[in-house]
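Agenda item 2: zinc ion complex prediction
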Amino acid sequence: MTAQTTQTSFLLCSTCACGVSNDDWSALDYHHDPEDADRILASITATMELIGWLSHVGQQDPGYYDCALCGDTHCGTAEEYTTDPTVNNPGIVLMSDNKTVRSYTNVGCYPLVYLDDQDNVVCPSCVQTDYVDNLNELDRPIASAHINYGDTYCDQCSQPIESA
Ligand SMILES: [Zn+2]
Ligand SMILES: [Zn+2]
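Presented output:
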């Protein structure tokens, strides 16, 4: 199976879902002998690099599915993951390449500031680093984007944000 670059939704088995979300692949050692577990993990890691960063969306209805990472066919409840950061962060505005966070409005070119769901200020470059390039599951989701009119500082990197 070759991963399509246009594909953003992936179904994972519970073992791979646990590995992706918790960075814990010890279940592979439990189900396979050590050599096989190493080989499978190497293959999974290569596939993950190809796909990009995955974040959890929810669960699919039970049925048969092929796990996008280990490739095994499973019967049961698949965990659905996405590489689209806007699925879990509705406030993120991306450029047309779908992976660069917008720093300025499309029309008028006004500087943008992002707010998470607790109204913490996050600058576009922190959104890029923490939510798109490296998903940190502990981060609060980005809820909205606004034109920045005042003296605003990023709550993550403490840098001033450009004002309109
Ligand atoms: Zn799997
Ligand atoms: Zn910042």
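Discussion summary: The longest strand covers residues 142-147.
Owner for follow-up: CH.
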